[in-house]
């Protein structure tokens, strides 16, 4: 589970860093979170979580400040949160989360991305039942045993703790996201390699080489769509 997460995050972070699309996506997500509650992360948990994620992707402070100021300024721009589910090559499963100010445009774009790249859209619930909403938090400088002891002392329940690539990744229920982070911050750990609320597949699948190439193109096309925030899937992309 964790290995797949690392590979996807590294691939996405590298790709988006080259195009700056990640900054635009975070700007929109920060604006929506700030608009839905107080524009202060200390009193707005959703905003705080988005800002923690943005930090792990090195989103510039100017992008963050601009989005929050836009929300404070009373902008009337609004976005709908949408989730699409579908199937890629060889029966692979994909979830697409979007924020959009034009539902028809987004639905059309997502449907076209699937249709032109060996996939097809599914109905609501056709894929999501094979995924678990999960908080994923990573740190460096501690061992797996040390993190386990730390979280036990803080009385924080988690699903799993794995040591991967010189970091420790904690998997927990989404409502434990803040509790895990606070447990780390209470012992002086304030930098996180991963800080995500994500959807993890219950079981990974491997694809034939030709199908995997087509699948990766489908994911790339979906991630490049302006309104798409996150793409989750059940394919093991390997090392």
UniProtKB/TrEMBL annotation:
Task: Pinpoint the TACO1/YebC-like N-terminal domain residues.
Answer: 3-74
* Major localization listed first in the record, in broad terms: cytoplasm
Tell me which Gene Ontology terms the entry assigns under biological process: regulation of DNA-templated transcription
Q: Which domain of life is it from?
A: Bacteria
Q: Is the keyword Ribosomal protein assigned to this protein? A: no
Q: Where is the TACO1/YebC-like second and third domain?
A: 80-235
InterPro entries named in the record: Integrase-like_N (IPR017856), TACO1_YebC-like_2nd/3rd_dom (IPR048300), TACO1_YebC_N (IPR049083), Transcrip_reg_TACO1-like (IPR002876), Transcrip_reg_TACO1-like_dom3 (IPR026564), Transcrip_reg_TACO1_YeeN (IPR026562), YebC-like (IPR029072)
Its annotated compartments are: Cytoplasm
**GO molecular function ontology, one term from the record:** DNA binding
One Pfam family of this protein, by short name? Transcrip_reg
Q: Does the keyword Ubl conjugation apply?
A: no
**What's in the keyword line of the UniProt record?**
Cytoplasm, DNA-binding, Transcription, Transcription regulation
Q: Which GO terms describe its cellular component?
A: cytosol
List the SUPFAM superfamilies hit by this protein, alphabetically.
YebC-like
Q: What family is it from? A: Belongs to the TACO1 family. YeeN subfamily.
Sorted alphabetically, which NCBIfam families does this protein's record hold? PRK00110.1, PRK12378.1, YebC/PmpR family DNA-binding transcriptional regulator
The protein, known as: Probable transcriptional regulatory protein A6K24_07580
**UniProt organism field:** Metabacillus litoralis
């Amino acid at each position: 589970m964790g290995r797949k997460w690392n590979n996807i995050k590294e691939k996405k972070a590298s790709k988006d860093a080259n195009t700056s699309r990640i900054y635009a996506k975070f700007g929109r997500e920060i604006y929506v979170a700030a608009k839905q509650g107080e524009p202060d992360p200390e009193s707005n948990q959703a905003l705080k979580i988005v800002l923690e994620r943005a930090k792990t992707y090195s989103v510039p402070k100017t992008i963050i400040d601009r989005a929050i100021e836009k929300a404070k300024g009373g902008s009337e721009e609004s976005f709908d949160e949408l989730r699409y589910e579908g199937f890629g090559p060889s029966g692979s499963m994909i979830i697409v989360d979007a924020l959009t100010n034009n539902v028809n445009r987004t639905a059309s774009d997502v449907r076209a991305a699937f249709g032109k790249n060996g996939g097809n859209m599914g109905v609501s619930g056709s894929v999501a039942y094979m995924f678990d909403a999960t908080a994923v938090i990573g740190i460096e400088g501690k061992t797996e045993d040390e993190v386990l002891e730390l979280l036990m002392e803080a009385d924080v329940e988690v699903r799993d703790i794995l040591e991967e690539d010189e970091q420790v990744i904690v998997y927990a229920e989404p409502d434990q996201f803040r509790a895990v982070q606070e447990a780390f911050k209470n012992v002086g750990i304030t930098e996180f390699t991963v800080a995500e609320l994500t959807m993890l597949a219950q079981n990974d699948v491997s694809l034939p080489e030709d199908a995997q190439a087509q699948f990766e193109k489908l994911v790339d096309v979906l991630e490049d769509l302006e309104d798409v925030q996150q793409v989750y899937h059940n394919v093991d992309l390997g090392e």
